[in-house]
Amino acid sequence: MDPAELKAIVRTIPDFPKPGILFRDITTLIAHGRGFAATIDRLVDRALMADASAVAGIEARGFIFGAAVAARLGIGFIPLRKPGKLPMPTIGVDYQLEYGEARLELDPGAVEDGEKVLLMDDLLATGGTALAAVDLLRQAGARVHHALFVIDLHELKGGHLLREEGLDVQAIMQFDGE
């Protein structure tokens, strides 16, 4: 399936979580067997360019795509978790969201010093969560030079912010608007 066909599977929900926002819901893409498989195929093709030894996925939907890509490549998967989900001492990063604050945590033993890690998530908007993820991975000793997303809301300029941090940023599809 080509990117236009995949994009057509993504459901748009207007006025969520607030008026004026067009929420891009990937649930329909995940539930579509052929579409989900084609999305993973396209992500794997792009992930190969990163030459990483692990994929880090941001909770929760980044787990779906990141783990599938890591398994297909035969490399490790590193979960970047919400607070309080890991049973061992963690390192974490607090960051700002449009509607408040959030935190990502990581088991520091999941990353080897100097390891090349590919960051993955389902959607790139303002870039705040992705930047926090890059910061957290780098604190743990990872080398992060590539970020890969299913969807980029390019008008929100998250990709621009990640590129300013030295990352190669790619997405399977782009949507206009929020």
Automatic annotation (TrEMBL):
Q: Which InterPro entries match?
A: Ade_phspho_trans, PRTase-like, PRTase_dom, UPRTase/APRTase
What is an annotated GO biological process for this record, any one? AMP salvage
Q: Cytoplasm: is it a keyword of this entry?
A: yes
Please give the SUPFAM superfamilies that the UniProt record associates with this protein. Answer: PRTase-like (SSF53271)
Q: Provide the protein's localization.
A: Cytoplasm
Q: Which GO terms describe its cellular component?
A: cytoplasm
Tell me the route in metabolism or biology where this protein functions.
Purine metabolism; AMP biosynthesis via salvage pathway; AMP from adenine: step 1/1
- Keyword Cytoplasm appears in the UniProt entry: yes
Q: Which reaction does it catalyse?
A: AMP + diphosphate = 5-phospho-alpha-D-ribose 1-diphosphate + adenine
The Enzyme Commission number assigned here is 2.4.2.7
Coiled-coil ranges per UniProt: none
Annotated ranges, domain Phosphoribosyltransferase: 51-150
Which UniProt keywords are given for this protein, alphabetically ordered?
Answer: Cytoplasm, Glycosyltransferase, Purine salvage, Transferase
Self-association or partners: how does it assemble?
Homodimer.
Function in brief: Catalyzes a salvage reaction resulting in the formation of AMP, that is energically less costly than de novo synthesis.
What this protein is called in its record is Adenine phosphoribosyltransferase
* Taxonomic path: Bacteria, Pseudomonadati, Pseudomonadota, Alphaproteobacteria, Sphingomonadales
